[in-house]
């Protein structure tokens, strides 16, 4: 590996210290600050890490994480949170402070005061910990990264205020560590601190974010987040003048949508929602809503786009739900497929086709892929011992059997794991197993099954992954989860089950079996497309012309990055494999999890009953989209974001711009005579537009939304500074100025209506209807054009958003709080306080027993998913602890005495 650094680069401290701390072996190559480490990049990028595979990493934090991963030091959730905070909060503040101190000569006290808030935050976090490190008992990549960010400004811990004792102690410890000392010497070289100054003088100067004008004294300098060159300003003004005629013609895709040679053909899928339940807000943002934003953006870019999805309907969970509701599996699928369709229609998800997996095409395509794997010797046969219920006349899937754990003697262990001690088990290892349907004792019988030979396909998989990672936009968590699966070598994967509800296995000796749902379900993308068009192979057997994007939550990653690609690689039929795997973290609800059984959280079929429009839900979910770490839905935050970002910022600007046209200029866009300030504003808006496009190109959906809000802030500041409502009453020059400001502002509003379309399609359409924006303008480019020329007639302008009142929000919080909103009370010896859910558990309450049983099953499923995705041990342990507490509550509700926790180690 080759590591490229520039002398005096503060970011270089991170990567050098991380390399030393992790023991990574790199070849250091120094380049000048303006040197190009990759020829085709327009701008220099250091530090840069060239991997032996040819891949180049540019993000300093990503390089640091890579070094630690090579050393087997996997980050925990707290580490990831610190890294994101460093990127979004600490680094911008420190960079500005450093520039102003070393280049502009600001006093040290002033600079330290500017970053005091971030220093205090770190100090408070360290004070609350029992260890001297940020994210654990040992020095982590987070410690290295934060030390490197602070070192150029602080350098000597003695300059830290006395009250920040914990921060000072931590910083001193880091300064004395060998990796940090070595990195500081290497980056500073003999020039010392002067090396930082020389490097910074060659970089664009940041704006002093803490230098704000006094109240009621707005300044146009507020608009400048970075300095603009005269060339940029002139180019923005020239582009603006070209007007809508410079827009490319809107692409009208064929019907049905099929790949077109010479165009960018984008195929988008979101993980197929399972049909046995109603999706909650976390499910919606993790899959269909994120994919919808990107699909709408692709269409605005004139890319030939197909977005398909559907319900995943086969498998054990469907059979279980059918038993619970007294319906057939097909009736369950029909019922919940209709519920899903209605929910996604209300959320305005723009599928080109939403299908399902219980179709003839699914059977035909799945069986064809199976036959190709069989012909190429990619399948293995092995005998598996299973439990069979003679009364029910079937082998029991894991969900249908429970018994006593062979390790801790817990009496309600399930067929795949014990939720008390957390150990993975085989159903045949259970003591006194019982069929959950009829309560009979099953017997052990052998059953032959088919396995996908993943070890034989591992080399092909790794070669394909290397190529896909080098050219595609895979999220960090999707790469990490994939690496963890293949790190210790792949094992054969069973692809058949002894069930009735599924795609039949077309092979003698196995015709009484069906395909395992995780072999079968991803093939649903192909079969759903086949139900959309009989020319589906032009999408799915055309990797040369098609770019495939998969959207999902992180627990689905290994099935899409390892198992399904191996299936298609082994079938050897030129299948289109995923180029961009986009995985979110988890969205939680307030202080806990979504739970249908407890009535906790907002589920898709409930959102429309809140009185809050679908576009507000879309906006808020996308605003807090869990891209780098888990995030949490908050009713208070929803109210604040609606009232500040939407009502007071975006809505206020669009409404003012349109109202000025109607009130002062008879509803027609006035002539505009651009001055220097106006042209500078055009350049700033153009920069935000380009940033928006760059972020969405990389599927950074949450960050791109901030660009729209930034543009509306520019617009509000522009109006506030120029006061057109006053100038319209003045002399000719003032009235001309009022017309220019109004015309520019309403054109910014028109641009916002286009950029907003992927996020809030209903609000976008309303703005365009009010401003009479031509449909031809719904195309995105990298330039801000005058879309509404002088003389353009607009329509009636009305407010876009309504204020959310605290009383309404509190009522909704109580309504969707479930057990969390109930006051716990202990009325007698038969009542015991519940755990995380709140409320009380009464012995002998049948309804409570049913609710807790469902909750236990739901939590156990969650634990199994975490283990299947090889989540962090700490996260798994926490969820197992919640499960054990729920089991305890269930025992109390059933009138049983809760068992004490299993002892471990010496105490045992």
Automatic annotation (TrEMBL):
Tell me which UniProt keywords the record has, alphabetically: Aminoacyl-tRNA synthetase, ATP-binding, Cytoplasm, Ligase, Nucleotide-binding, Protein biosynthesis, RNA-binding
**BP-aspect Gene Ontology terms:** cellular response to epidermal growth factor stimulus; cellular response to platelet-derived growth factor stimulus; methionyl-tRNA aminoacylation; positive regulation of transcription of nucleolar large rRNA by RNA polymerase I; rRNA transcription
Q: Name one GO molecular function term.
A: methionine-tRNA ligase activity
> What are the GO cellular component annotations?
aminoacyl-tRNA synthetase multienzyme complex; cytosol; nucleolus
Major location, coarse class? cytoplasm
Name one matching Pfam family: Anticodon_3
Q: What is its EC number?
A: 6.1.1.10
Segments forming domain WHEP-TRS:
848-904
Task: Quote the catalytic activity from the record.
Answer: tRNA(Met) + L-methionine + ATP = L-methionyl-tRNA(Met) + AMP + diphosphate
Which protein, by its recorded name, is this? Methionine--tRNA ligase, cytoplasmic
> What organism does the record attribute this protein to?
Chelonoidis abingdonii (Abingdon island giant tortoise)
